[in-house]
C-alpha cells in the first residue's frame, strides 16, 4: 500500500511556485532520499506531508486515507501521530533527562499506563543504543547521542512514516555514518518508510536507496526505492 501518493501536485509558498506537477509515490518500508540545491523545494515538499505547507492543486493522499487538500484540524492531528519527524536542530527539552523527554511525548500522545510507557522507552533506547543513557541530561550528550534521542522520540508511537530533514547535517562523518545505519535499521526492523533530505552525496553511494531530485521546480525520480541495492547486512550494529 502506498504511504504517500502525489499526482500532479503543485506547491506554492507566499504566491510563489515552489514545485509543480509533482508525481511521487512511497510505499510501506521504502527508504528514499530527496536531493537538490538549496532553495529547490525539498523542505517545502516535506512540510506538505504534515500539513505545514498547503497543497495548492492536484491529488495528495497519505496512508490511503488522508486527503491533504481537505484536512481539518482533528484529522490533521491524527495524521501527525502517524508520522515521525527528525530535524537538524534537536529541540530536546533541556530541563529533563533523556527518559523524561521520551516519557513526555508518550504522555502527550495518550499513553496512560506507566508500565507500557516504560517498556516502550526501554525498547527505543535499546534500538538507538542508548539504553544506559536514560538518566543523562541533553547537555551531557554528544551531538550524535542527542540526534539518536531525537530519532528515538520520533519512533515512540511506531509511525508508518519517518521524515528526516538533513539529520546528519550538523554531525561529523563518523557520527553521521552511525545515524545513517540507524535510520536504515529502523526502516528494516520497525517496518517504517523513511523519506530523508540530504546534501551529502556520499550517503547515496554508501547507503543506496530511492532518489528524488528537486530541480527547476520539478521533482524527478532518479532511482526507484524498489531498485535500490539491499545492504541490510551492514546495518546490524550501531557503534558510537
Structure commentary:
By secondary structure, the chain is α/β, with parallel strands linked by helices. The protein has a domain at 2-92 and 160-235: Rossmann fold. 31% of the residues lie in helices and 27% in strands. It is built from seven helices and ten strands. Helix 5 runs parallel beside helix 6 (173-189). It is globular and about 50 Å long. The two termini are 35 Å apart. Residues 232-240 have low confidence and may be disordered.
Compose a concise summary of this entry.
This protein is an alpha/beta fold and 240 residues long. The chain has a domain of 167 residues: P-loop containing nucleotide triphosphate hydrolases (Rossmann fold, 3-Layer(aba) Sandwich), CATH 3.40.50.300.
Distance between the termini: 35 Å
Structural class per helix/strand content? alpha/beta
DSSP strand count: 10
Mean pLDDT: 90
Looking across the biggest beta sheet, what order are the strands in?
Answer: 6-7-8-3-9-10
CATH topology of one domain: Rossmann fold
Binned, the helix content reads 25-40%
The level-1 CATH class of one domain: Alpha Beta
SSE order, as H and E?
A: EEEHEEHEHHHEHEHEE
Q: Classify the beta-strand content into a percent band.
A: 25-35%
Largest sheet: 6 strands, mixed
Give me the CATH superfamily of one domain.
P-loop containing nucleotide triphosphate hydrolases
**CATH architecture classification name of one domain:** 3-Layer(aba) Sandwich
C-alpha geometry: globular
**Which segments are poorly predicted (pLDDT under 50) over 5 or more consecutive residues?**
232-240
Count every helix, treating DSSP H or I runs of 4 or more residues as helices.
7
As a whole number of angstroms, the C-alpha radius of gyration is: 18 Å
